[in-house]
Amino acid sequence: MEAAGEGGAMAAVRAAKRALRGELRQRLRALGEAEKRRQSRLLSRKVIVHPKYQESKRIAIFLSMPDEIQTEEIIKDIFKQGKECFIPRYKPQSNHMDMLKLSSAEDISSLALTSWNILQPSDDDSTREEALAGGGLDLIFMPGLGFDKKGNRLGRGKGYYDTYLDRCMKHPSGKPYMIALAFREQICESVPVAENDVQIDEILYEDC
């Protein structure tokens, strides 16, 4: 009976996540382009003066989708400060993701556009360093659909970041510090979580 109870609890969490994803997508659709730019600029400034960012040398950051905080200014600053920058390459039909090294901010224009409308290194690009094949990561900037103030994150349901963070734990350099970047409209009272969901160290948004 206990196993059945656990299965029911997991199904309830999945259903709660699905419902919240729908609500958050509606909130994000209602957010105007000018407001997205305003909040993105504000968060870029917060990041650049953040002590964890300043002390980190090897940083992973996402290339933004239209409904995410725009990271272009942060990426430019990573290179301006002489830090190393790694970006995701998602493997379709799986939960596998690698963090591959970007050589410059201009390097982004050479990347392929996936069917999900995300820029990333192509599958046959084997020249870039994968972060965990080298010195690991000091800091990861995390995307997501929603977050609560306890550090719980609601992703898009693919499990890429949870799986990658599990790999980070096994690296000699250990777990990187995790900062989520969010519009204030993405902050929730409570995000439903399962046992394998990883908590974020810190969430940056306008009012924090």
Keywords:
208 residues, three-stranded mixed β-sheet, 11 strands
Helix content: 25-40%
Oligomer: single chain
Cα distance, first to last residue?
43 Å
Query: Which segments are poorly predicted (pLDDT under 50) over 5 or more consecutive residues?
Result: none
> Strand order of the main beta sheet, please?
3-2-1-6-9-11
Structural class: alpha/beta
Largest sheet: 6 strands, mixed
Strand content: 15-25%
H/E series, N to C? HHHEHEEEEEEEHEEE
How many beta strands in the DSSP annotation? 11
- What general form does the structure show? globular
In short:
The chain has 208 residues and is α/β, with parallel strands linked by helices. Helix content is 33%, strand content 19%.
